[in-house]
């Protein structure tokens, strides 16, 4: 009886840790993991950690119940083989894809970025987007241009009328 109670306690602890990972990170990428030499894994973890991305090894029997009871349930079909999670409190999709390009043993299946569930293609498209600050700057610039264009259009008619009257 104590052995199964210990197993249940350990499983509960692992599930709580998975819940924490999903709660505390803006980017959670689900990857298929195929065996690779230990030094390659150490290198991949090092390059990802430089961008504040952590590698989490998860067991499907632990992660599936957690995901099925959460807003991330659409990620459930991705947890079938050996999986790892790449997680970050920031949305570092571009940096993650750059590192994964050099690691054929790890295949990105999908991700949840800022509560939006994306396919691999969706993550690649997201990575191509300009940073939020740049997009906001472009929007502000475009909005500032509109009133000055409107003003010059309104003044053009009176300027043209004045020029015609001067010629007359």
Q: Can you offer a commentary on this structure?
A:
- The chain is an alpha+beta fold and 168 residues long.
- It has 2 domains: 6-128, Ribosomal protein L10, N-terminal RNA-binding domain (Alpha-Beta Plaits), CATH 3.30.70; 130-167, no CATH class.
- 59% of the residues lie in helices and 18% in strands.
- The protein contains 6 helices and 5 strands, in the order αβαβαβαββαα.
- The protein has a 5-stranded antiparallel β-sheet with strand order 2-3-1-4-5, sandwiched between helices.
- Strand 4 and strand 5 form a beta hairpin.
- Helix 1 packs across helix 3 and helix 4 packs across helix 5.
- The longest helix has 36 residues, at 132-167.
- It holds the Pfam family Ribosomal_L10.
- Keywords: Ribonucleoprotein, Ribosomal protein.
- Belongs to the universal ribosomal protein uL10 family.
- It comes from Tauraco erythrolophus (Red-crested turaco).
- One of its GO terms (cellular component) is ribosome.
Summarize, please.
Helix content is 59%, strand content 18%. With 168 residues, the chain is α+β, with helices and mostly antiparallel strands. It folds into two domains: 6-128, Ribosomal protein L10, N-terminal RNA-binding domain (Alpha-Beta Plaits, 2-Layer Sandwich); 130-167, no CATH class.
- Per DSSP, the total helix count is 6
Percentage of residues in DSSP E strands: 15-25%
The fold-level CATH name of the largest domain is Alpha-Beta Plaits
In helices, the fraction of residues equals 55-70%
Major sheet summary line = 5 strands, antiparallel
